[in-house]
């Protein structure tokens, strides 16, 4: 429990809402809106509309619900792709129906308009977080837009059909929302000409009948990102035959998986073997406790990224890490909100020594690591020469040991981002002393600067338990800020 001196007074008269910035509409936008008000005119003008205006016009029609215009634009869409960004307003059953009607016209045409280049529509994809309408393919997105899922990690699903509709399916409490259900049925009736591609599948809570129904239609080979949450081990057993068919699964996320078996139940339920999994993430899942070894067995190819958050780990779990052959080429290890303070970290040391040549990202946040444990870790840390990101936020290091840590990270020449906890000396009986943080940080930074040019370095206090705010000192401003 930590409290800051900065807890803001709650103020409900949120000024920002009333302070809307007035921006005059451009002439072009006015013309577009005018055109859309007269739908018949807009539709007849499509043949002469310059290519470049298609995405903005489509966006305008989409946001304002001009469904007839949407339908008419699809059969003459002059780009290979049409992606509806996750942030765009008015993504609902009506706009979906309008787009699908346009696709129906396209499918029915014996001779296509020479203008039409459309091969795929992306209706929904969480990882595709652009704001409006995007006329490029996902593969052509600028790199910053695809960072969550780099291009080289996205092999096609291999299903070749004339037209492809990509979406993300969420089965919440056993149900699909009405748009997903509609899209599913629509694609099922046109399965000879349309491939409905689900790259992302989320199953949150299980209703067996729905899952059976969905997997009759879903191409399991298309699934690259899978989230399973709010399930128990029996549910996983039920899903296993389906998971086994997901031959292209790259990212698996498990959250809130509970262990409902009694102690004398025989075998621990195992996930099937995944052949190309790159990222495995487990959050708040009691069943992981003392089962990590069996759990990691499901990997066939060396994993790139392992993320475990809000879980309890046993000594046996930590001890198995250096002996799991499928994680020895790890590029990223993130452990957060896992209490390590009562565990011996020697096996983590062996593990870091093993992955030192590949590890680029090491985050051990809110792990309750103490001075003596840090001391154990340090020599191995120096061997992780490829590290680009380190984060040790919210651990209990005294000034002396934090300096020791910095002497080690100072030797890591590839580091780009470094996040350290404020030393214990910056707290007094549960109260954050921001002045002290500001006074101590320059000499801490000196340790790094003496060895190399640091890029991005911050020292952060624990979050205040009342307001969630924290103090952060950064290299860029060389000042202490309060953040909330
Ligand atoms: Zn506070
Ligand atoms: Zn597919």
What does this structure look like?
It is a single chain. With 484 residues, this protein is α/β, with parallel strands linked by helices. It has a domain of 91 residues. Helix content is 31%, strand content 19%. The protein contains 15 helices and 18 strands. Strands 3-1-2-4-5-6-7-8-9-10-11-12-13-16-17-18 form a 16-stranded mixed sheet. Strands 14-15 form a two-stranded antiparallel ribbon. Helix 5 runs parallel beside helix 6, helix 12 packs parallel to helix 13 and helix 13 runs parallel beside helix 14. The chain is globular. About 6% of the residues have low confidence. The structure holds zinc ion (2 copies). One zinc ion binds next to strand 5.
Keywords:
484 residues, two-stranded antiparallel ribbon, alpha/beta, 15 helices, binds zinc ion
Helix content: 25-40%
Secondary structural class: alpha/beta
- Give a short account of the largest sheet: 16 strands, mixed
Cα gyration radius (Å): 27 Å
Mean pLDDT across all amino acids: 86
Number of extended strands: 18
The outline comes out as globular
Largest sheet, spatial ordering of strands: 3-1-2-4-5-6-7-8-9-10-11-12-13-16-17-18
Associated small molecules:
zinc ion
Low-confidence parts lasting 5 or more residues at pLDDT below 50? 11-22, 139-154
N-to-C terminal Cα separation, in Å? 17 Å
Q: Work out the strand percent.
A: 15-25%
State the helix count: 15
């Amino acid at each position: 429990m930590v409290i800051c001196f900065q807890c803001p007074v709650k103020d409900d008269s949120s000024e920002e809402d009333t302070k809307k910035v007035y921006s005059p509409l451009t002439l072009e936008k006015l013309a577009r809106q005018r055109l859309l008000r007269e739908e018949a005119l807009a539709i007849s003008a499509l043949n002469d509309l310059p290519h470049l205006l298609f995405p903005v016009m489509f966006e305008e029609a989409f946001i304002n619900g001009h469904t007839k215009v949407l339908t008419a634009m699809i059969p003459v869409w002059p780009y290979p792709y049409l992606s509806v960004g996750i942030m765009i307003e008015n993504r609902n059953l009506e706009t979906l129906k309008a787009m699908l009607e346009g696709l129906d016209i396209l499918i029915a045409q014996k001779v296509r308009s020479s203008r039409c280049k459309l091969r795929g529509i992306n209706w929904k994809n969480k990882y595709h977080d652009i704001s409006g309408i995007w006329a490029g393919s996902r593969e052509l997105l600028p790199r910053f837009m695809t960072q969550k899922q780099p291009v080289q990690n996205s092999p096609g699903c291999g299903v070749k059909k004339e037209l492809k509709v990509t979406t993300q399916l969420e089965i919440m409490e056993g149900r699909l929302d009405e748009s997903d259900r509609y899209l599913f049925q629509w694609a099922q009736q046109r399965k000879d000409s349309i491939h409905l591609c689900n790259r992302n599948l989320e199953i949150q809570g299980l209703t067996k009948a729905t899952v059976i129904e969905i997997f009759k239609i879903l191409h399991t080979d298309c699934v690259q990102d899978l989230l399973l949450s709010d399930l128990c081990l029996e549910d996983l057993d039920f899903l296993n035959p389906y998971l086994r068919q997901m031959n292209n699964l790259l990212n698996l996320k498990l959250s809130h998986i509970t262990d409902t078996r009694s102690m004398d139940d025989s075998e621990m339920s195992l996930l099937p073997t995944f052949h190309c999994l790159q990222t495995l993430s487990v959050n708040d899942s009691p069943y992981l406790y003392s089962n990590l070894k069996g759990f990691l067995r499901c990997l066939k190819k060396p994993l790139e990224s392992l993320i475990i958050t809000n879980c309890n780990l046993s000594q046996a779990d930590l001890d198995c890490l250096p002996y799991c052959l499928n994680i020895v080429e790890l590029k990223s290890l993130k452990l957060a909100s896992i209490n390590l303070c009562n565990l011996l970290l020697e096996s983590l040391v062996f593990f870091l020594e093993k992955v030192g040549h590949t590890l680029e990202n090491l985050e051990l946040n809110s792990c309750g690591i103490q001075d003596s444990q840090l001391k154990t870790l340090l020599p191995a840390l120096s061997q992780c020469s490829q590290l680009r990101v380190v984060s040790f936020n919210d651990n209990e290091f005294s000034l002396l040991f934090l300096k020791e840590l910095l002497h080690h990270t100072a030797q890591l020449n590839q580091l780009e981002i470094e996040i350290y906890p404020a030393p214990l000396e910056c707290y007094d009986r549960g109260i954050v002393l921001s002045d002290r943080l500001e006074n101590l940080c320059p000499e801490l930074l000196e340790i790094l600067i003496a060895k190399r040019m640091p890029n991005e370095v911050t020292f952060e206090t624990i979050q205040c338990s009342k307001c969630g705010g924290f103090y952060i000192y950064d290299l860029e401003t060389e000042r202490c800020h309060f953040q909330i």
